[in-house]
Specification:
alpha/beta, Rossmann fold, seven-stranded mixed β-sheet, binds S-adenosylmethionine
Length: 297
């Protein structure tokens, strides 16, 4: 399924997963008791016009078990929102959102004045995103700089060329990204983050380095979604399962203080325990960890 240098737009291959995530955020936003509010997500879903996703937003009552997936995404979104807020409370004013997809944090969050937010993703994903945001006259709440560059290529060069300052502490996120990178690019990602991070920087990612069987994910999709919103696209086929470093281990060996948690622990901490989830989703969630780390001085 995947090849070196492959690319996509918002309705194909890995791009469709960004649209899927936006759909789940939109669903959580219109839940009667939502964990997050992302009013931008529905704009993207509507503009993409992919019927399997727009249908879900038009008829939330038909969402059924998929609402659980929205809740799961709500936990993840809140985790990363709070991670960014913690960084700016420490005075960090430079953020890099790796694989930003349809993440609207540059618009949603109340960044302190003077914050620069860099977003990196593939060109056609970002073109779509910026077109929708412009159509809605959306205004970013930070100095947003968009870098259309592949994360398997020389993204640090593009970042520094667009004004990134490695002498200043940075807050980094890699949300929903790591399984889509081949092992070499995955490991290079953390090496590059480390090389570009001044003391006081922090990074967060969700990861499956303990292993996730793609067939298991597909089984879950079929059972939860029935008619999968991803259509014939098998999301498990988009993932790499080649060897790679464990991000938490790697970071702790390279001068970072690491904290690991799980979606279950965070949901409980938010007072929204994930108790009513189908067993398949529980299995997947149990293999996922949120790793966050701060670079020591
Ligand atoms: C599941 S989506 C997550 C998007 C976003 N972080 C979020 O949580 O809403 C995966 C994203 O990773 C991006 N991505 C995956 N591999 C990439 C690569 N090699 N270079 C640039 N972007 C990549 C995709 O384009 C997509 O936007």
């Amino acid at each position: 399924m995947r090849t070196d240098g492959d690319s996509w737009d918002i309705v194909t291959s890995v791009g469709l997963t960004a649209l899927g995530v936006a759909t789940f955020r939109a669903l959580e936003t219109i839940d009667p008791d939502p964990m997050i509010h992302d009013g931008y997500a529905a704009w993207f879903v509507e503009a993409a016009g992919e019927p399997r996703f727009t249908r879900l937003l038009k008829d939330p009552a038909a969402v059924g078990a998929m609402a659980r997936f929205g809740r799961f995404m709500g936990v993840r979104t809140r985790f990363f929102d709070e991670f960014f807020a913690a960084a700016w409370q420490r005075g960090v004013r430079q953020a890099v959102i790796l694989a930003s997809g349809l993440d609207a944090r540059a618009y949603r969050l109340d960044w302190p004045a003077g914050t620069v937010v860099f977003e990196i993703d593939q060109p056609r994903v970002l073109e779509f995103k910026d077109r929708v945001l412009a159509d809605h006259h959306a205004a970013a709440k930070a100095d947003r700089r968009v870098l259309a560059v592949d994360l398997r290529d020389d993204w640090p060069g593009a970042l520094t060329a667009s004004g990134f300052d490695p002498r200043r502490p940075t807050v980094w996120s890699a949300e929903g990204l790591l399984p889509f990178l081949p092992g070499a690019a995955h490991d290079a990602l953390f090496e590059r983050i480390d090389a570009l991070s001044a003391p006081g920087s922090s990074v967060a990612a969700d990861e499956f380095s303990r292993g996730l069987d793609p067939d298991h994910f597909v089984g879950m999709e079929e059972k939860l979604f029935g008619d999968s919103p991803f259509g014939d696209l098998d999301v498990g086929d988009l993932w790499y399962d080649d060897a790679r470093s464990d991000p938490g281990d790697w970071l702790s060996r390279h001068g970072w203080t690491v904290h690991l948690t799980t979606p279950f622990e965070m949901a409980a901490a938010y007072g929204r325990p994930l108790t009513d989830m189908p067993a398949e989703l529980v299995d997947v969630a149990q293999q996922m960890r949120y790793v966050s780390a701060g670079k020591r001085g």
